[in-house]
User: What shape does this take?
Amino acid sequence: MSLKDRLFEDMKTAMKAKGEGKLRLSVIRMARAAIKNAEIDKRQEFDDAQVVEILAREVKMRRDAIVEFSKVDRPDTVKDLETEIAVLLEYLPQQLSEGEIRQLAEETIRAVEAQSAKDLGKVMGALTPKTKGRADGKLVNQIVRELLGA
Assistant: This one.
């Protein structure tokens, strides 16, 4: 079953759940709309890898929003956004831990023979495909900078 099919089936289940599935239903509808809009923009049907990219982008947008809403003391909105992230993460591949990211970064640094912070672009170029959809890009960048002494 493709990821889009799974979203559709889960949306039907959330509809049947009535009240308790209301937030889940709205998150799934939002995700499906984001996927559909991206498909229309690109004029092509997306495969699971492209759907994962869209869902990862939606998670990132919510994480960024959490930072902003925390600054203006809106705990209710932060809580809703965290719940939305939890629903979206169910559809993404298993997220990498910080230790796993660090290990991948160290391997990549050795593979591209990076020596200093000047090689950051080379390392990130090789590492990003390995972590896409499985780790937050900011965290990956932070770990690589730390390992390169930047």
Remarks:
- The helical segments are 3-16, 22-42, 48-71, 75-89, 98-112, 120-131, 137-148.
- The longest helix spans residues 48-71.
- The chain has a mean pLDDT of 90.
- The CA atoms of residues 27 and 84 lie 6 Å apart.
